[in-house]
Design brief:
globular, Rossmann fold, 2 domains, Dihydrodipicolinate Reductase, domain 2, alpha/beta, nine-stranded mixed β-sheet, 35% helix
Length: 332
Amino acid sequence: MQSINLGILGAGLAVKHLHWPALHHLAGMFTITAVCDIDLTAAQEIARLVGGDPVVTTDWDEFFGNSQLEAVLISLPIHLNAAAIRAAVRAGKHVICEKPLAASLAQAEDLVAELRDAPVVIEIAENFHYRSDFKQARRWIEEGAIGTVVIINIIAAFWSDPTEGFASTAWRQDHQYRGAVIADAGVHQVAALREVGGEVEQLHAFTKDVHPVLAGSDSLVLNVRFRSGALGQLLFSGAVQAAEPSFDAITALGLEGTITVRHGVATLHRPNRENVEYRAEDARGYIGEFHNFYHAIRSNEPVVATLDEALADWRIIMGALDSAESRQVVLL
């Protein structure tokens, strides 16, 4: 099938370290035709990285007005996502946009209501919705492999280094969106909880702000009840020096066994039986994001990480912040 002419809006770390390696792996599916960033030097650096001869610009309108572009990758600070998605749709471009979809719940709900039936493909790049290790865990649960599920737990504990990497970017340190690192990173773990446990019907949360540099809440204890009746918990901190840093350590406890997911490996543990292990080929899910995006455009394949999926993730994160502020249980 024909390559898709893709423009990149935003020339930051995510493009360099997350998106481009996946796009490079899928050589032939996408041709990078344009790069746009307010920082010309950053845009030029990405253009050199991807090769070819993409148009480089600092002008948003010029970028979206490029008739060669079929689709755009939006990788901007969170508070700009909703406006960029709207601009892309108005220009008739297919959209893959970094999570989360908006800076607040109200903004996200308005965006989804407006664009749910848009005549272009819209995918929100939440890579955890493309992780086959999580989906395998869910299959085992649905097959009854561990009996009635009682508790699903996920732990994310790491240090957000303000001097280098993602946490060093100015827009993350002086965020213009609700939720700080909990919103930026914790939305991944919420997606994982939903992938493994299904939909959440109520939640209760506590937060803390302890990072010496990053503003806003950075640590979270989130308790949930799934529609299935199972209980769940997310323990999250982007401000700790963990002995074993983790971002996706999941445990599902059932009456007849346990499922663990660690670093792309899902393992089924049952008494008096050998463990069953599943290893994901695309352990982080980024290749799956772009593979799905390509085939949604070229073959009408259903989008996995839809606007509605992104909204469901975001509603839980925003609900957790509401609960922490009000000290009340939140019903979804």
